[in-house]
Amino acid sequence: MTAATQERGRTGSRLARAALLALWGLFAGFPVYWMLVTAFKQPRDIYQGPFFVPFLDFTPTLRAWEYIAGPARETVVHGLLNSLLFAAGSAFIAVVLGAFAAYGLARYPYKYGPYRNDDLSLLIVSQRIMPPIVAVIALFAMFRAAQLLDTRVGMLIAYTWFNLPLTVFLLTDFMRRIPVELEQAAALDGYGKFAQIWKVVLPLAMPGLAAAYLLSFFFSWNDFILALMLTFRDAVTLPIVITNLSAQMEPRWWLISAIGLIAMVPPIVAVSLLDRFIERRVLHAPRGEE
Amino acid sequence: MSTLQLIDVSKDYDNRPAVSRLTLECEDGEFLVLLGQSGAGKSTTLRLIAGIETPTQGDIRFDGEAVTHLPPERRDVAMAFESYALYPHLTVREHLEFPLRAPRRRLAPAVIAQRVQQVAELLEIGALLSRRPTQLSGGQRQRVSLGRALVRQARLTLLDEPVAHLDARLRHDLRGELKRHQRNSGATSIYATPDFSEAAAVADRIAVLINGELRQVDAPANVYDHPADVDVALMAGDLKMNLFEADRLSGIAPLPGEARQVGIRPSDIRVLGRAEPSTLAGKVYVTEPMGYDQIVRVETGGRIATARMPMDQERFEIGQPVWLAPDWRRQHLFDGRGRRLGTAPN
Amino acid sequence: MKGLKHLLIAPPLLFFFAISLVPLIFTIVLSLSGYSIGGDFSWVGVDNYVRLASDPMFTKSYWNTLLYVLLGVFVQYWLALGVALLVNQMASGSRPLRLLFLLPFVMPPLIVGFVWQTMFDSRYGPLSALLRGLGVGPVLWLNEAKLAFTSILIVDTWQWTPFMFLILFAGLRTLPREPFEAARVDGASDWRIFWDHTFPMLLPASIAAILLRAIEAFKLFDVVFYVTGGGPGGATSTVTLQGYFTALRSGNLGYGAAMSIVLLVTVMALAMAALVWLKRLAGRRTRRMERELQAFSVEFRERTAP
Q1: pLDDT tens digit string along C53-66?
Q2: What is the DSSP letter of B345?
Q3: Which residues of B touch C306 (CB under 8 A)?
Q4: What is the ipTM of this complex?
Q5: Domain closes at, from B166, B197, B229
C-alpha cells in the first residue's frame, strides 16, 4: 500500500469512526435531553405529539418547577433529603468500616477455624452475588419485628450492608498495593501504628477511598428495591416519591421529568468533587513521566 | 552511640532458616560490614536488628539492654532500605524532615533545617528537594533513602546495599564519603553488601554470612589473608580463588596429610610458556588484557584456573599450551569439611 | 495491639452474619413454609418449589431473566468493546466524551425507566415520531409481548453498556504499546491486530466485565417495574419482579421466598462455574509460565557454571 492510499484510508476510516461515535453519543445523550426538555413543557405540548426544540417547537415553561417549589415542595424535599442522607451517610460508614477491614485483611493473617484471609475476603465479597430480593424479604420480616421498618436508622443500616462488600473488595486490593515497607520505614522513623496509618497509608489510599465512596454513593442513590420494600412514609427516598407521583392513569410527566433532573444532580456533583482524588496517581508515575 | 550484641539469633520463615545462630558483637562507633551473596541473610539480619522482624530464637541487645521484643519506633535505629521505601506522596525535603518531625523527638525547626541542609549537601541532592520520588532517577532515589537514614544521627545506622544501584563512579565517591561521615559522627553503622572490595574499602571489620551462617568476623585484611573456610575464601577478592584437589597436586607441592583442597589466588599464579618443575600443564582458554593487568584463564585437569599477571610479561594465544606456576608459599589449605588448616608460612 | 486485627474485621463480618447469612437462612426456611402475612406458619416442605415448576408466570419470568442475561450481556459486550476501541483511538479530549457516554450510568434506574417509558409511548414518544416519519405505522412498543421484551432490552443496553465500557476502556488503557507498534510495522491490518493481539490481551478485563455484568443482570427489576410493570401478561417479567409481587403485594411470603432461592441458586451456579473455568484458565497459564521459567533457569545455570 502506498503512503497516499494509506493516508486516504486513514482519513476515511477516521471519518467513519467519528460518525460511529457520534451515533453512539446521540443514542446515549438523547433520552437525557428528552427528559431535560420535557421538564420545561406544558402538558398540552406533551400530549400533542413530540416536540423537540424549545422556543421553536414549543414555548418552555417553568410550570413543573413552580409546582415543585409550591405544593409538592414538602414531598420532594423530604424524599431528596432522605436519599442524600442514606447515600452520603451509608457510603461514608461503608468506606470507613471497609477501610479498616481491608487494612486488616491486607496486613494481618487471619484464621477463624479453617477460614483464612482469602476465604474471609470471598465471604464478604460474595454477598454481592446474592440478589437483593433474597435478603430483602427476610429483612422485611426482621425489620418489622425490630420496629426498624420505615426508619432512617434502619435504612442506613440496610444501605451500609448493601455497600460494605463492594468497599471491602475495592479497598483490600488497594491496601495490598501499598508496600508494607513504607509502614516499616515510618516505624523506624519513629511513628507508632496509628501515626503510620494516618500519615502514610491513608494519604496513599486516598484514590481508592474516593472511588469506593463514589461507587457506594451511586449504588445507594440509585437503589429502588430496598426502599420499596422497607419504607412507606417516613424514610421514603426520591425514587419512591417519583413512583407515587406516577401511580396515576395519566402521570404528570413534566413533573416527574423535573424531579428526575433533580435526582441527577447529586451524583454528578459527587463525581466532579471526588474525581480529582481518583485521578491523582500517587503510587505509580503516569505514563510519560518515568 | 551504642554497642550491639546478637546472641544466638535465628530466624525461620516457614520452617526454612534464613539465619541460624548468629552471635555477633559490634562496638560503639564501629563500621561493620555484612558481606554475603543474595539470599545469604544480610537483609534478614538487618531487619532483625531494626525490629521489623522478631527472631525465632535468640537475643538482641543494645548497650546491654535487651531490645528483642521492642517495636522499631522505640529502638532509635535508622535504616536505608535496599528497595528505598520512599514515600510517594512526600517531597525529598519532606522525606529528610519526616524522621526529625516524629512526635517522640522534639527538635527545634532550626536544627531540623540545618541537618536537612547538611545531609543534602553530603549526598548532592540539594537541587532535588522539592521533587517527589516519581520524578527522581534510580540513583537519586537511593540517595534520598540514604539521606533519610543519615539525617537521624541515630545510635545505630543500618545500610542495606546503599550504593548498589549507582553508577561506578558515584559508587566509589559515595562510599568514601560515607566512611568519612561515619568517622566524623562516630555513629555505629552496619553496612550490607555482596561486594568484597566495597566491604574492604569501608569496613573496620567484615562479618561474612554464608547461607545464613556467620563464618568469620575479622578485619578485612584477615578475611583476605586467612579465610576461615572455602566459602569465605571464594567470597574474598574480586577474582575467585582457584581451588585444586589435593590429590591432583601430590608430587608437585608439599602438602600435609589432612589437606583436601588447596586454594591459590589468581594473583599468586604465574603462567609460563614452557615447562618447569612443580608446574601444572594446561591450555590457554582465553586471555583478557585489561590495560594494567592481564587475566589468563587456563584449562587444566578438566577445570579452568585463573591467573592474573602484569601486562608487560609474556602474551599468550588461545589454545597455546602453557604451564601454571603457583607460589606455593601463599597457598591456603582446607580440610575435608572445607575449614582452613593454616597458610604456609611466608 | 493484639486484639486490633480482630476489631478491624469485626464489622463487615458482623454485617455478613446479621444481614446476609441470617436472612438467607430465614428466606430458605420461609420458602419451605406456606406463610402469608396475617396467616399462620405452616410447613409445606418442597411444595412451593414443585408449584413453581408448573407456575406459568414463574417459568415465564425465569426464562425471561435468563434471556435478558444472555442476550443483554452479549449485545452490550460487543457494543461496549466497539465504543471503547473507538474512544481509545482518540488521542486527547476523550474526557468529555467519556463523561457523555457515562451519562446513562449516572441516572437512577427508576428515572431511566421513566424516560424510556415516555420515549416508547406510541402516541407522543419521539421514537414513534421517528418511525412515523419513516412511514412505519404506529408501533405499540409496550403493548405487544415480543416488542415489549425488546424494549426492555434496549433500555437495559442503554443503561449498562457504559458500565462495561468503563471496564474495557480501562483495560485498553493499561495495554502496552509495543506489540501493536511492532505489528503495525510488520504491515498487519487493523482487523488482524485486533484479533491476534488486542482481543487476547483484553481477556482479563473482558471476563471481569462480563462476569460482573451478568451477576447484575440477574437482578433486573427497576426498569421492568417502571416501564412495563412486568406486562403485557408477564411477557417482560423477571424473577425479582415476580418475587416482589408475590411476597409484598400478595403477601405470600413463603412462595415469594421460594422464587428468590431459585434465583440465588442459578446465580451461584453461574458464578461458581465461572470461577472454576477461570481457575483452570489461570492454572493453564501459570503452569505454562512455570515450565518456561524452569527451562530458562536450567539453561542459565548450565551456561554460567564455573
Answers
A1: 888 889 999 999 99
A2: P
A3: 240, 303-304
A4: 0.77
A5: B229
